[in-house]
């Protein structure tokens, strides 16, 4: 699986543990070298992804492209918008009203956890615990689409 496929997969951990030590994370180092253009959120995210991955980003289906944009936002948000500085919390919260990754995915856990003002450390701990104890996930009340 190449890096672009991993970046667009909401169930993949790529980059999501980089919030601990962004200076040691390969993906954060590559992202910090990029310069965001002063344009609207969606275009800015697309151009950042194109700079990061090149031409193949143009051929992605819409849903996979959205997952890549959400991962980019989560990476920025998990470091308090200070390490990368591509987006603002207000922009991400506005974007979240329209889009969101699957709830049971690792990207979804970070996305909805950050929206709920949780710390990345706590989000990661809860996700890993639910993976270890199958009876905690999915919940019986989660509905037919979750299990």
Explain what this protein looks like in three dimensions:
This protein is globular. It has helices at 3-8, 26-32, 41-53, 62-78, 89-96, 106-115, 120-132. It starts with a helix and ends in a 15-residue tail after the last helix. Helices cover 50% and strands 0% of the residues. Helix 3 (41-53) crosses helix 4 and helix 4 crosses helix 6. Mean pLDDT is 87; it is low at 140-147. The chain has 147 residues and is an all-alpha fold. The chain has one domain (3-146). The protein contains 7 helices and no strands.
The rounded Rg comes to: 15 Å
Query: Helix count?
Result: 7
Sheet bearing the most strands, described? Answer: none
In N-to-C order, the SSE pattern is HHHHHHH
Q: Specify the structural class.
A: mainly alpha
In total, the number of domains comes to 1
Q: Quick one: overall form?
A: globular
Quaternary structure type: single chain
List low-confidence stretches: 140-147
How many strands in all? 0
**Helix proportion:** 40-55%
Mean pLDDT: 87
Strand content: under 5%
N/C terminus separation: 26 Å
């Amino acid at each position: 699986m190449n890096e672009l496929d991993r970046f667009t997969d909401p169930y993949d951990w790529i980059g999501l543990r980089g919030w601990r030590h962004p200076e040691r994370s390969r993906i954060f180092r590559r992202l910090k070298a990029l310069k965001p253009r002063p344009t609207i959120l969606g275009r800015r995210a697309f151009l950042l992804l194109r700079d990061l991955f090149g031409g193949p980003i143009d051929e992605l289906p819409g849903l996979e492209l959205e997952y890549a944009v959400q991962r980019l936002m989560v990476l920025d948000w998990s470091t308090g918008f200070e390490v990368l500085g591509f987006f603002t919390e207000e922009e991400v919260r506005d974007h979240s009203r329209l889009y969101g990754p699957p709830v049971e995915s690792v990207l979804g856990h970070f996305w909805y956890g950050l929206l709920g003002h949780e710390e990345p450390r706590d989000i990661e701990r809860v996700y890993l615990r639910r993976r270890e104890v199958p009876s905690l996930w999915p919940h019986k009340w989660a509905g037919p689409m979750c299990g």
